[in-house]
Task: inverse folding
């Protein structure tokens, strides 16, 4: 137990040591541990997170902000650090004599009153505090202030920075409180038994739990991104903060109530932490309007500037790859690509000449050992610019990666050069009519016959089967294997093989998918990739990168849709989205938050995969996939509602060149590809220990 946790545990716990007097007693020992020293922002945020998890409103961020603004009053800064000056920061008119809705008001000694637009801020003593009982516990107060003890001039930029950090602090504290309730609900679900088993095994509980985890991880990544940008004085730091704050305001209360559903009646009574955490979450979110957003909402910032969403590449190599890819895409067409469109040989050849296909492979296999983050940056940009290279890109990860890891020297020589050149066309033979996302239940069989295998069965919903040269095929080679996944093997089967029949179907998206039937299809053992009955390992070895690439494809298209929508709105701000404060702008802000959350989840998952944090990478990639699918559907639908019927057209002169209606049709597939969202949430829940 570290000093922070030990102090909070000893000095602050519900219900007996969590009142105004406890706050006053806590302030001095917290200062002695350096909580109010002007240290790093990351350190301050870590402390705010700890107080949020304890439902404690000690104003650590207020002290950090005040110390940063009062550099010309060193004696006050020293008093803040020592805990002798117990300061709050309030946005408002310095001439006003009162402050409403003050957290820790009865424990505070001073208030720094900050004019939101900048100007003369003043430090004023608290003469007396009038408690305002209600949701907050301890109660807020109305403070009556004395005359100024110090005055400092604050320019508009510093005022905006201060307000932004105060809002970030509220978001951090609310998110941490929601995280704590979530963790308690997960622990409860593992031991609480109903109807003969732990409730963590119930589908509804697992779905709720996974949804909470996705929203929390996304929110925490948005907060971390805002902290990094503030610490580096990045020009987009206020936008990044509003993205994090908007997310917290939307999801922290939702997470809290969802956790209560799992905790049940035991979490409703005040002997449990949950009621106090509930109060903390809702009180902090309720306080956000008292600290006005310095540049307006996310939509206001984006509409009023020429900037887009902040870039989130996790490594310098990924950022460099993105710049190269953007330059390449600028040289080629960027119209909306039809979903059933074949790759453009000229564009594929140009990418191959740059050695971008298979760049993550080892040098011995024709690659250059690039990281997954670089591969995803390239994938994201080609999807964003709608470059017709999707099939060639897919072959790299779906076929190339397992051949690199499990293929023989002869197989590598046969397939890898063609994948590097972008010439190998394939389809993915996983899904079956009765198996769907449950690959362990597949029934297509391959029976050994001398040096050959004889394949029988049916695969369903197979994209590109009508044009593919090969099918990357999962089959059962041991029908009695226990567990079932132990009897699966992988084959690279030529689609021209005798006995293969395809029946094409037109999907809602416009893509052609097929039912593929195998009737005594004979293939050589040389078509098998990896050991017999070890196909599950072949699949799962590359599953994280495959899911990430699928999610990245969706994310790139969603980012393009968002930018197209933003460009349309900028051309007529009040007409398209409405004035500041309107529902249209609120929708636009929500879209921006969700798109950015997906980008951060993808970057995090890729970074974890590169660091060999396999379990975390798989969980995070599943979260990114679930959220990417939901964002794709919601964004397309909201765009149609904001832009009206014109966005439902697919003509080149339609808004976004037709990308909105196409994205909406494709969004259904987004919920299904790589395993349905319900299945993915179940996997996430099991990754958290629920079963």
Result:
């Amino acid at each position: 137990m570290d000093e922070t946790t030990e102090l909070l545990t000893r000095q602050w716990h519900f219900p007996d040591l969590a009142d105004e007097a406890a706050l006053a007693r806590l302030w001095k020992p917290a200062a002695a541990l350096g909580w109010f020293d002007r240290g790093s922002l990351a350190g301050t945020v870590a402390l705010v997170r700890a107080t949020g998890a304890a439902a404690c409103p000690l104003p650590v961020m207020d002290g950090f902000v005040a110390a940063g603004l009062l550099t010309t009053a060193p004696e006050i800064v020293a008093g803040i650090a020592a805990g002798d000056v117990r300061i709050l920061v309030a946005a408002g008119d310095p001439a006003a004599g009162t402050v409403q809705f003050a957290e820790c008001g009865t424990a505070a000694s001073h208030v720094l009153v900050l004019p939101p637009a900048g100007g003369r801020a003043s430090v004023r003593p608290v003469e007396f505090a009038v408690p305002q009982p209600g949701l907050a516990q301890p109660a807020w107060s109305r403070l009556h202030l004395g005359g100024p003890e110090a005055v400092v001039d604050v320019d508009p930029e510093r005022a905006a920075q201060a307000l932004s950090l105060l809002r970030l602090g509220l978001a951090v504290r609310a998110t941490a409180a929601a995280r704590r309730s979530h963790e308690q609900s997960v622990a409860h679900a593992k031991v609480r038994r109903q109807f003969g088993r732990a409730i963590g095994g119930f589908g509804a509980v697992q779905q709720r739990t996974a949804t909470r985890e996705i929203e929390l991880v996304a929110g925490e990544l948005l907060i971390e991104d805002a902290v990094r940008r503030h610490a580096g004085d990045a020009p987009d730091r206020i936008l990044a903060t509003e993205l994090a704050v908007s997310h917290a305001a939307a999801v922290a209360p939702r997470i809290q109530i969802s956790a209560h559903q799992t905790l049940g009646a035991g979490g409703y009574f005040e002997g449990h932490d949950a009621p106090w955490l509930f109060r903390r979450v809702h009180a902090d979110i309720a306080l956000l309007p008292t600290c006005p957003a310095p540049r307006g909402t996310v939509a206001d910032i984006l509409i009023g500037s020429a900037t887009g969403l902040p870039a989130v590449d996790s490594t310098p190599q990924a950022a460099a790859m993105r710049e190269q890819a953007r330059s390449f895409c600028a040289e080629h067409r960027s119209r909306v690509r039809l979903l059933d469109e074949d790759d453009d040989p000229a564009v594929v050849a140009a990418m191959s000449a740059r050695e971008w296909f298979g760049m993550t492979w080892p040098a011995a296999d024709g690659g250059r050992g690039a990281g997954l983050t670089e591969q995803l940056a390239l994938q994201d940009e080609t999807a964003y610019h709608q470059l017709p290279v999707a099939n060639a890109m897919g072959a790299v990860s779906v076929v190339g990666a397992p051949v690199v890891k499990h293929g023989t020297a002869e197989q590598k020589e046969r397939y890898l050069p063609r994948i590097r050149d972008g010439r190998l066309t394939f389809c993915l033979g996983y899904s079956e009519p009765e198996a769907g996302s449950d690959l362990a239940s597949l029934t297509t069989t391959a029976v050994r016959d001398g040096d050959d295998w004889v394949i029988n069965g049916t695969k369903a919903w197979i994209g590109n089967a009508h044009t593919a040269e090969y099918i990357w095929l999962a089959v059962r080679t041991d029908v009695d294997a226990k567990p079932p996944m132990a009897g699966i093997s992988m084959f690279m089967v030529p689609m021209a093989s005798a006995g293969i029949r395809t029946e094409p179907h037109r999907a809602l998206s416009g893509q052609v998918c097929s039912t593929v039937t195998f009737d005594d299809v004979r293939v050589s053992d040389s078509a098998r990739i990896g050991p017999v009955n070890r196909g599950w390992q072949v699949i799962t070895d590359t599953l994280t990168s495959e899911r990430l690439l699928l999610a990245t494809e969706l994310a790139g298209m969603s980012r393009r849709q968002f930018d197209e929508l933003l460009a349309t709105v900028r051309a007529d701000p009040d007409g398209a989205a409405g004035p500041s404060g309107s529902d249209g702008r609120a929708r636009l802000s929500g879209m921006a938050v969700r798109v950015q959350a997906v980008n951060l989840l993808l970057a995090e998952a890729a970074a974890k995969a590169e660091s060999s944090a396999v379990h975390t990478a798989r969980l995070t990639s599943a979260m990114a996939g679930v959220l990417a699918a939901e964002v794709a559907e919601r964004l397309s639908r909201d765009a149609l509602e904001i832009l009206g019927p014109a966005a439902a057209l697919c003509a080149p002169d339609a808004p976004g060149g037709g990308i909105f209606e196409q994205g909406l049709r494709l969004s259904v597939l987004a919920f299904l590809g790589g395993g349905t969202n319900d299945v993915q949430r179940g996997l996430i829940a099991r990754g958290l220990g629920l079963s």
About this structure: The chain is about 50% helix and 15% strand.
